[in-house]
Amino acid sequence: MQSPKIQFTRNEFAGAFGDIGTDFPLIVALILTAGLHAPSVLIVFGVLQIATGYFYKMPMPVQPLKAMATLVISQKIGGPVLIGAGLAIGILMLFLTSSGLLKLISQFIPKAVIRGIQFGLGLSLCSLAVKDYILPSAIAGYVLAGISFLIILLFIKNKRFPAAIVVLCLGLLYALLFEVSAVDLKESLGLHLPILNLPSVENIVQGFLLLSLPQIPLSIGNSVLATQQASADYFPKRKDISISKLGYSYSFINLISPFFSGIPVCHGAGGLVGHYTFGGRSGASVIIYGFFYLVLGLFFGNGFSSIIQLFPLPILGVILLFEGLALLFLIHHLGSNKKQLLIALITGIIAFLMPYGYLLAMIVGSLLYFNADKIDWLKA
Hints:
Elements: H1 10-15, H2 20-34, H3 38-56, E1 63-64, H4 66-75, H5 79-98, H6 101-107, H7 111-134, H8 139-155, H9 163-178, H10 182-187, H11 201-234, H12 243-256, E2 265-266, H13 269-277, H14 284-300, H15 304-308, H16 313-329, H17 338-353, H18 357-370
Antiparallel strand pairs: 1-2
């Protein structure tokens, strides 16, 4: 197989922002809630994007760990514990991968269950986009969201006018006209570097118990299994994207990030699908996305509150909505197999609705699959 190439095209630029609707609001919330050093978080997040884009040479981004982020935001857990949790989960994932346990677990999870996990994640993203990003908006926000939705519908396959670029430019124009002044942006300029950090044993242990353990089921289900399946769907010639490779890279990025005050991160099916949906086909889209965060952190770290306003939530919500819809659509790969479709739907609904949903979804979905011949309504 010919070595994949990194190509910088206008569609790669559009694809670069296919996952911003998920990442940016979570990063903002983590920085504000946990009292993190904004330049460090943005710079490290950007560097890790660039590294994974170059390493995989495909749209394989990194994302904030969602279960951890939810717990930190809802329970007001401090930054040192969050950073300690990142190192803890990096060590844990390294153990699972190097011991062969991660690969062993993957062999017991049927493809229908993986599709269900993707479906559940799609439901979660669509729900988040509508409830938290679009519906709370004022009338101007509804207008922005409506125009953005129509633009993406019209231009999502257009290589001359990539949809994500058009929508983001619309959002920037609106923000500069009504939300942010040039003076605010000028005052936020300055050079910043990440802060070196050595997590304490106490914070690593606390982070492991409070944050890493709840995160592991989602990481195995979405960051590894569903991501590997999405990679196989979109890039069938890339036989090198294995469970172990994803496990090792997941581990390494979290073994590096904490020492530079970065947040815990992962791979994710949603991120890959988001980049692909809006035009990303090589590592270029992820590298461009990484440079976006790198520039924000290096030069605009002090004016973080002004930078936030450059990206109106309704715009991010519409981008996130299409990412979620693309994940929902992946279920069509199961074809007309009644048993697998039902299992995937049940798995997805459990993952979406239940506490620790991804763990329960994997267990219940796998039990249904391996006992389908004993269940009348699952028989083909």
